[in-house]
Amino acid sequence: MIKHLLISAAIVTASFATASAETVRWARAGDSITMDPHAQNEGPTHTLSHQIYDTLLQRDMAGAIIPSLATEWAALKDNPSVWRFKLRQGVSFHDGSKFNSEDVVFSLNRAMADGSEMKELLSSVKEVRAVDSHTVDIETNGANPLLINNLTNMFMMDKTWSENNKVTTPHDVAKGETNFATMNTNGTGAFILVSRAVDEKTVLKANPNYWGKNLYPNQVTEIVYTPIQSSATRVAALLSGEVDIIQDVPVQDLGRVSSSSALQLATAAQNRVIFFGLDTVNGPTAELKVRQAMNIAINRDSIKKVVMRGQSDPTGVIMPPFVNGWTEALNKYPKYDLEKAKSLMKEAGHENGFDLVLNCPNDRYINDESICQAAVGMMAKIGINVTLDAKPKAQHFPIAKGGDADFYMLGWGVPTFDSHYIFNYLVHTQTSDRGSWNPTGYSNANVDSMIESLESETNLKKRDDTIAKIWAEVQKAQMYLPIHNQVLNWGMRKDIDFDVQPEDTPHFQFLKFN
Amino acid sequence: MERFFRSDFFYHFCHAPVAIVSFITIILIILSAIFANLIAPTNPFDPSSLNLMNGFTPPLETNEFTGESFLLGTDDQGRDLFSTILYGLRISLFVGLMAVFLAMVMGVLLGLIAGFLGGWIDSIIMRFADIQMTFPSILVAMLIYGVARGILPPEVRYEMSIVVLIISIGLSEWVPFARTVRGSTLVEKEKEYVTAAKMIGLNRQQIMVRHILPNVLSPVLVIATITFALAIIAEATLSFLGVGVPTTKPSLGTLIRIGQDFLFSGEWWILLFPAITLLALALSINLFGDWLRDTLNPKLK
């Protein structure tokens, strides 16, 4: 029996070893904002970091939590507010130093430090302790049964490397800071950073000492990542064979890509909702009636039909259907009603309208600028004279987050698959460790304490009730105008075997060539 | 007026079909831009009049949702392309005209001063011009545009974007004017009438402006025509690169940029019609400018 197993293991290993070595040329609209894995909580930034850095836990294609750098984890039986993680043995960083519990303690503390955008995911954490060289305890304020969901984007850095290079805290992107880790990396991941030119080209090569060498296909030996903002250029690069995979096939070119004999199109619902945020403290949008008017003045059906060409799922709540707390009733979006919107504007004393600036990214979400442009027309119909200010995301995000914007576009993916993640970032009052992406000024002490209570609520029924209550408050306050959930369209070479992942985060060690 | 019709200039014009055709094209385009609000069936710059459901209607076909049809079709936001091109032409022509005017005033003044005064002033102005010549003018325009965009707050940036375009294109195109005027001034200032003017005690400003300037202007007219075409193309290029006028008030270049995204999907009209308009305009101005140069330059006869 053992002999039999050994032979099959040998065959498996041999088949991996003989797999063809290949470069994958990968493109999408925008670049990663920084290589510092804790400085930005943003999709494309995490996606690139995932190739280089590892997390304790990861999600499989079905969304289930599976081991990564941690092999076992469980809450302690006698004390449910402590989670114990067993770390993988024999893992080393790209520079050769060994991965151990010191690095986990350091990385999690770094992710909770000032400047980190990962804080909200760890807001329930009281202390992180190393038990021995490969065991770590995370103690939370009260038992948090869902803590492990928050660790799938929590990257592990090397303590010694970080100390030597003076990057023990993340840099604050919104303040324009940079540090050594902005352009340099030292992870445990499947790929090593070879060269990086921001917004131009990033080259990664396979890590020869990767711990997952025999666990995953690992057929990609080199990744060349090129951001291509123009959708026409991006799809032309795919059609001409200049790139092998693009994560965002423009909706108008889906037919062109799927009809090409050399290419395939992979489609899936994405865990990402697109919405507009409004200032609830200053200016005319502070008036609830104005926000309500704007909400029903948006014609979500025509955005879906014309701008998205059917490739979206209009919604009335800023929560993708993957998330715990999602209901059909919340998802139901308000009917487009111009007359009612106008009368609401009149009731609010703004029947003559007002001026507003709409801040919008132009290289982040699918057709982001076109959606904003359509919104300009829709707002004009109720008298709001909107000036569109569309910018690359690296400039847009600091404006949207900083609270200077009265009206801005944002998209939100939920890696934890739980409403708490949305609340803690987008609904909680903006404080030093929560609500960092809530520049709307919305602040409700009752809602805040409900959000905080979710972290230590072990009765899941009661927890879900609280979630429903918070959503009712959010829907009532209307500081966000939901638009739709995105649909993912990856275009790639026909001989590539790669599953589309709802978080839009390819992990290239899983890619196979047919 | 009668003198003009009997002049050599008019005679040559009547016997040059290229000049006639290009001149008529230019006049037609300019007139339709000026009277855009009378000719255009819709006002594409008024966002409240747009209906998104009209988006991507092919030329002369009926939209399946709204039942409306459009001569040249609509773009991705449901704007009537014919109207948008007319209104976009206004921006392109206005920016082109003002930029040429700015470049001309700057170039002629600096060229005149450099040529007439000579010495270290001449060296400074002309070396500066040489340095600027080594940069492509579109790069200079992008630099000025980028700085201005960074300084101005978003509310005024919108209105200012046209002004910034004019300044950035104008500042990048003054060198040819300065070089030509300096050259002619160097020749003119040695002539007897200048010496005579000096003898009767006129000061330098008077000699420069009243006596030399009128005599160096005819090549300026030719350069202005050519630069006008260049400026229109520069505006289109900047807008195409996304640093020009905003997409809610598109110029020809912005329309071409929008249309480019829909080439693969078969919505050809969004790109084609603005591109043809731009081509017709720039080509006519260039052809007319060439003819003007040949006619006004006695050495080429």
Describe the 3D structure.
The complex is a heterodimer of chains A (514) and B (301). With 514 residues, chain A is α+β, with helices and mostly antiparallel strands. Chain A is 30% helix and 24% strand. In chain A, helix 14 packs antiparallel against helix 15 and helix 15 packs antiparallel against helix 16 (460-477). The longest helix of chain A has 18 residues, at 460-477. Helix content of chain B is 72%, strand content 0%. The two termini of chain B are 25 Å apart. With 301 residues, chain B is mainly alpha-helical. Chain B has one domain (77-300): Orthogonal Bundle (MetI-like fold), CATH 1.10.3720. Chain B has helices at 2-5, 8-14, 17-34, 36-39, 81-117, 119-134, 137-151, 154-172, 175-188, 192-199, 204-240, 252-260, 269-296. Chain B is globular. At the A-B interface, helix 6, helix 9, strand 14, helix 12 and strand 15 of A face helix 8 of B.
Secondary-structure map with pairings?
The complex is a heterodimer of chains A (514) and B (301).
Chain A (H helix, E strand, L loop, with lengths): L1 H17 L3 E7 L14 H10 L4 E3 L5 E3 L2 E6 L6 E6 L13 H11 L13 E8 L2 E6 L18 H6 L15 H4 L7 E7 L3 E6 L13 E8 L3 H9 L5 E2 L7 H5 L4 E16 L9 H10 L2 H8 L4 E3 L13 H4 L6 H10 L6 E8 L6 H13 L3 E8 L1 H10 L4 E7 L5 H9 L17 H10 L5 H18 L2 E14 L2 E2 L14 E2 L1
Parallel strand pairs in A: 1-10, 1-11, 14-15, 14-16
Antiparallel strand pairs in A: 2-3, 4-5, 5-7, 6-7, 8-9, 9-10, 11-17, 12-16, 12-17, 13-17, 18-19
Helix pairs in contact in A: 8-11, 14-15, 15-16
Chain B lengths: L1 H4 L2 H7 L2 H18 L1 H4 L41 H37 L1 H16 L2 H15 L2 H19 L2 H14 L3 H8 L4 H37 L11 H9 L8 H28 L5
Helix pairs in contact in B: 3-5, 3-13, 5-6, 5-8, 5-9, 5-11, 7-8, 8-11, 9-11, 10-11, 11-12, 11-13, 12-13
What is the count of helical runs of chain B? Answer: 13
What characteristic shape of chain A results from the CA principal axes? globular
CATH topology of chain B: MetI-like fold
Mean pLDDT metric of chain A: 92
**CATH domain class name of chain B:** Mainly Alpha
Q: Report the average pLDDT across residues of chain B.
A: 89
CATH homologous superfamily of chain B, by name? MetI-like
Largest interface: A-B, 37 and 27 residues
Q: How many β-strand runs of chain A?
A: 19
Task: Specify the oligomeric state.
Answer: heterodimer
* Termini Cα gap of chain A: 31 Å
* SSE run of chain B: HHHHHHHHHHHHH
Uncertain segments of chain A: 5-19
Secondary structure: helix percent of chain A: 25-40%
Secondary structure category of chain B: mainly alpha
Q: How would a textbook summarize the main sheet of chain B?
A: none
